[in-house]
Amino acid sequence: MSSTKHLLLVEDDPDIAKLLADNLLEEGYRVDSVADGHAALAAIAGNRYDLLLLDVMLPGVDGLEICRRVRAGPVYTPIIIVSSKSSDVQRVVGLEMGADDYIIKPFALAEVVARVRALLRRVAALSEPVAVQADAVLVAHGLRIDAQSRSVALDGQPVALTAREFDLLHFFARHPGRMFTRLELLNQVWGYNHDGYEHTVNSHINRLRAKIEADPANPARILTVWGVGYKFAEADAADA
Q1: Domain stop point among 100, 127, 154
Q2: How far apart are the C-alpha atoms of 38 and 119, rounded to whole Å?
Q3: What is the residue range of the signal peptide feature (predicted)?
């Protein structure tokens, strides 16, 4: 394991923090550990981390607020929430705030390390240069979606998307006219340990529609198939 991966661990229980930090260090990661939300925000402001491990219940600023602030910033950082709050509602809230994964306490240390490793692998794969393919640039419904630069323009104007929003839009655009259930979208776009959190798909689609639809309440691009799921509208003749 490369020692260059720099992780921030935010955990106010000193015993749990030590166990996690020791195991992550053994894996070869660099680990900064802080015990409250304000210290976490200061650390994030002063460093470029490869991944954040966040507890939810923290002194000062809670983990969900930290997650929200990180996602509102210009740099995408993978986030895993580690929390004793185990209800489906809490997990959905965490994922909708932008977390990539949610681990419930008590946990097996090996599971945490495995999920850290898996998420870092996925992010690394997404950042690798891709071969030029026929669908490297997709054009449909006024959208220009560039897979290599991971950029989107609508009617010639750039659209700022999060990494997950881009993945979702690109997946839809590659399969115009095909209907996908929420679970299929989770498996294809989120990819890891998100079964049962279909509601987060709705949230991401609502945010995506707000950015690419003239009237998000009556979308023309990402369409709802009532009682089933969603699909991307088939291309107009002008897009061919």
Answers
A1: 127
A2: 25
A3: none
